[in-house]
Amino acid sequence: MTNDHTALEEGGEIQLDFTKLKKVAQCEQDVLPVAVQDADTGEVLIVAYANKQAFDYTIEHGIAAFWSTSRNELWVKGKTSGDTLRIVEIRVNCEQNSLLYRVRLEGKGACHTKKPSGETRLSCYYRKYQDGKWEKVQPLAG
């Protein structure tokens, strides 16, 4: 992890990336956003993107796979970390332009970042805005 990523992921200054969709478009893949939710707790774990290859892999293997828009490659969640997202249910929105993967986590967390203790974070949504500032919080699930 570079210093830029450390500052972005662990720093106190929020740097919202309003250009993300432009970057996604530049990956030259047809993708859909995928919200990933813990099927038991309702906790939102991650938002990622899937192309046809990632979607087909997910269906075939029952494990969440995505298209990495930054690396331009198939990203099978947990393949290197061991933190797999087992598919419980797949839903599509009314306009068929986004997906919801309801999953059971097989591992410690869905986020690639770590807590100060070195443990994987359960969810990528570990900061909240309150009283004019951002603060790190525990997952909604406890």
Structural commentary:
The chain is α+β, with helices and mostly antiparallel strands and 142 residues long. The chain has a single domain, classed as Roll (Ubiquitin-like (UB roll)). It is 17% helix and 33% strand. The chain contains three helices and eight strands, in the order H-H-E-E-H-E-E-E-E-E-E. Strands 2-1-6-5 form a four-stranded mixed sheet. The protein has a two-stranded antiparallel sheet with strand order 3-4. Strands 7-8 form a two-stranded antiparallel sheet. The longest helix is centred in the middle third of the chain and has 10 residues. It is globular and about 40 Å long. The two termini are 27 Å apart. The model has no long low-confidence stretch (mean pLDDT 85).
**Strand order across the biggest sheet?**
2-1-6-5
Mean pLDDT: 85
Number of helices: 3
Shape: globular
What percentage of amino acids are in beta strands? 25-35%
Name the CATH homologous superfamily: Phosphoribosyl-AMP cyclohydrolase
Distance between the termini: 27 Å
Second rung of CATH, namely the architecture: Roll
CATH class: Alpha Beta
Helix content: 10-25%
Number of domains: 1
Tell me the series of helices and strands, N- to C-terminal. HHEEHEEEEEE
Q: pLDDT below 50 for ≥5 consecutive residues: which ranges?
A: none
Q: Any idea what the radius of gyration is?
A: 15 Å
Give me the count of strands. Answer: 8
For the report, how would you describe the main beta sheet? 4 strands, mixed
